[in-house]
Structure formats: C-alpha cells, structure tokens
C-alpha cells in the first residue's frame, strides 16, 4: 500500500499539469468579484510574476504585456457556447474595441494579455486611437469578461418586418488600468 501511495505522489509531481503551476500572489479580487490585470514591458509567464518589473505607466511605443487573473477557474463560470469571451479596450474612458476569443480552458485561472509591440497584439485599433487622442497622459483600461446571452427580443423595422435580436449582458471577470504617456 505504501508503494502505491508513493507512486501516486511521484506521478502527480511529474505530470505535465503540475510542471507549470499558476501563481496567484498578485491576484486581487474587488467587492464586485472582479479581479485584476498586472502589466509589464516584457512577457509575464505563468508563475514568473516576481521576476519581471511590473508597471502601471508606459511610454507610447513601449511593449506592454499583461497577466489577467480570474477570480476562479474559468470552468466555474459555466459559459455556454452563446456566451462570448470578450476583451474590451477603453482609452480615456471611451470604448475603443471589443475582441472576441475562444473560451479559455476550464482549469485556467489566468491568461496572458498582449497589448502593444508583442508580436500578437489583441487590439488593432489601440495605437491609431491613442495617436488620435494626442499628446499627454492617457488612461487605458482593459475589461475581460463573458458577454452572457440573455435571450431575444422582437425588433420592428420601418418596412413592417419583425426580426429577433439577441440580447447580451457583459459579466466582467477581470479589469486592469494603466497610463500611457504620448508626445
């Protein structure tokens, strides 16, 4: 029996799922149940948050990576296929763009965010909108959440046609805000 438990312990320690453990030392959950996103000028790998210089202010053109923490494992949100997994971008409190991605794996409790100069940036409108905003300090906010399907409603058009419109409500999962200085 001791050999069996020793085998179980050893196999669990050597399994690929344990090799890359998630660290939640930087996760903060607010009173609304929404957690945070941290940022750096370099990739923030899983469990390596303490090895990078975390920042809240960036200079325009600088690489910006984020690590978004979920308040719980994604699978606990019980997202159905009609629910979109969204990343929303705001600059100076104005909505700029929504990116819809595939749902994360159910056991994920966090994800990498590619914002600027990362060779995989999520938001194509980020830099053009920032440049239009002009010189100065700009507040950039990312909200990641589920756009929950709520049902449909009838919409009447001027020609008399009635069509079904799908209704959604955003359930924020995590949110992060940084400042970007432009010249």
Structure notes:
This protein has 183 residues and is mainly beta. It has helices spanning 2-14, 16-19, 126-133, and strands at 35-40, 57-59, 64-69, 84-91, 94-101, 110-116, 136-156, 162-182. The protein has one domain. Helices cover 14% and strands 44% of the residues. Strand 7 (136-156) and strand 8 form a beta hairpin. The longest helix has 13 residues, at 2-14. The radius of gyration is 20 Å and the shape is globular.
Summarize the structure in short:
With 183 residues, the chain is mainly β. The chain contains three helices and eight strands.
Low-confidence stretches: 3-20
Helix content: 10-25%
- The DSSP helix count reads 3
* Structural class estimated from helices and strands: mainly beta
The first-to-last residue Cα distance is 69 Å
Major β-sheet, in short? 8 strands, mixed
Counted up, domains total: 1
**Strand content of the residues, in percent?**
35-45%
Number of strands: 8
H-E order: HHEEEEEEHEE
Q: What's the average pLDDT?
A: 86
Gyration radius, rounded = 20 Å
Question: How would you describe the shape?
Answer: globular
List the helices and strands and how they pair.
Blueprint: H1 2-14, H2 16-19, E1 35-40, E2 57-59, E3 64-69, E4 84-91, E5 94-101, E6 110-116, H3 126-133, E7 136-156, E8 162-182
Parallel strand pairs: 1-8, 2-8
Antiparallel strand pairs: 1-3, 3-6, 4-5, 4-7, 7-8
């Amino acid at each position: 029996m001791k050999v069996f438990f020793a085998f179980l312990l050893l196999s669990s320690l050597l399994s690929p799922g344990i090799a890359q453990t998630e660290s939640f030392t930087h996760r903060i959950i607010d009173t609304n149940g929404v957690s945070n996103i941290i940022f750096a000028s370099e990739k923030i790998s899983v469990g390596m948050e303490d090895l990078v210089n975390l920042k809240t202010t960036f200079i325009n053109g600088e690489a910006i990576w984020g690590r978004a923490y979920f308040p719980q494992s994604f699978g606990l949100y019980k997202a159905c296929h009609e629910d979109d997994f969204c990343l929303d971008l705001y600059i100076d409190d104005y909505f700029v763009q929504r990116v819809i991605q595939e749902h994360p794996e159910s056991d994920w409790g966090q994800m990498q965010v590619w914002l600027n100069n990362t060779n995989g940036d999520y938001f194509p409108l980020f830099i053009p909108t920032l440049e239009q905003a002009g010189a100065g300090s700009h507040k950039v906010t990312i909200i990641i959440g589920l756009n929950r399907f709520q049902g449909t409603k009838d919409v009447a058009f001027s020609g008399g046609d009635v069509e079904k419109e799908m209704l959604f409500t955003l359930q924020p999962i995590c949110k992060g805000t940084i400042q970007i200085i432009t010249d």
